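Q: What would this chain look like folded?
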Amino acid sequence: MEKRDLYDEKRKLTGETIKKGEKIPEGKYILVVLVFMQNSDGKFLIQKRSEIKNGKYATTGGHPKSGETSIQGIITEVEEEIGLKLNPDDLQLYFSGRSDEQRVFWDDYYIKIDIENIKKLKLQKEEVESVGWFSEDEIVELMKQNKFFKNHYEEFEVLINWLNNNKCKEN
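A: My prediction, written as structure tokens:
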């Protein structure tokens, strides 16, 4: 059974763990990691989650296993879910936050990446039904239709703001 590390409210490891699916103890937090992958055409690699995972569209993400850092966790999740090996040096942390209500810390990553043929990606069927490249407008439309996982969409909005601010700085 997969274990997850527990953190205190200051994001310090407590030395305690919980098993996947267990309730997070009061005053403790777990870590959630996400990555948005964008190709040179400006489209994002989005997955349709399996029906047991709610069947909605989302980005790739999950929980680092016990002992993994945030960046190790997202690299593991991407490799497990879609069979893609990412270079940690290419990942940019664009947002880090905390939800007291959900008792989680969020780390959101961004990577600019072109994948030759996404049909060759090895999808973890328990997690992912399919993957595709989607424009920002298509993702917004999926959310309007309640087909995009809300938590991931909120992080996507943070990404779009971050990308727009970085473009402004470059000009």
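The two ends are 49 Å apart (CA to CA).
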